[in-house]
């Protein structure tokens, strides 16, 4: 039975990924600052914490880098502390996960698949989120670089670019009629997506059905990117 570590597995998209994998024959291990019962405590910005989590998880066939944060701050008001925090969680956290799997797969003489959760804003910038846009753009770039480097040893690295997804992280915006109207004006589907709609795509990218899919940034955004 394939085993997958899911960062950010305590809520939102990460929790949906865990549920879907566990319901479809995988073993998903949730890792989070506040993990669910049976999960692992993980601060993705902490190198030593990654080592502890990977040791505790045991041999893995896959990793989903889903831990993330979001804030809205105009450029003129954005300080370096918040800028670095955004990059630490998304960019450093994703890098440490990819590196950890690459090292362990090499040592164990096995391979697997990594799925990174980027965002529609990696390719469709929005105002007031330059730090978030930069972080998600970096995840997309790291996905391509890691895919090229790890493909010769049989590993695959792909990313999903979710659009507007109904999670605790987006509750504030989707709870504001003005914000909701603006967001829906960007989405031809005319609605927010559900976390489960990301989870099914993550499961596909982890599976052997996607054995020839590598280095892809796959939009799951109700048509935002196409429009």
From TrEMBL:
InterPro entries: KR_dom (IPR057326), NAD(P)-bd_dom_sf (IPR036291), Sc_DH/Rdtase_CS (IPR020904), SDR_fam (IPR002347)
CDD domains reported for this sequence: SDR_c (cd05233)
Gene3D superfamilies reported for this sequence: NAD(P)-binding Rossmann-like Domain
Coiled-coil residue spans: none
Keyword annotations: NAD, Oxidoreductase
Keyword Oxidoreductase: yes
Keyword Transmembrane helix included in the entry's annotation: no
Chain ranges of the Ketoreductase domain: 2-168
Pfam family, one: adh_short_C2
Molecular function GO terms recorded: oxidoreductase activity
Family: Belongs to the short-chain dehydrogenases/reductases (SDR) family.
PANTHER family for this protein: DEHYDROGENASES, SHORT CHAIN, ESTRADIOL 17-BETA-DEHYDROGENASE 8-RELATED
Name used for this protein in its record: Oxidoreductase
Organism the protein comes from: Nonomuraea cavernae
Upper lineage: Bacteria, Bacillati, Actinomycetota, Actinomycetes, Streptosporangiales
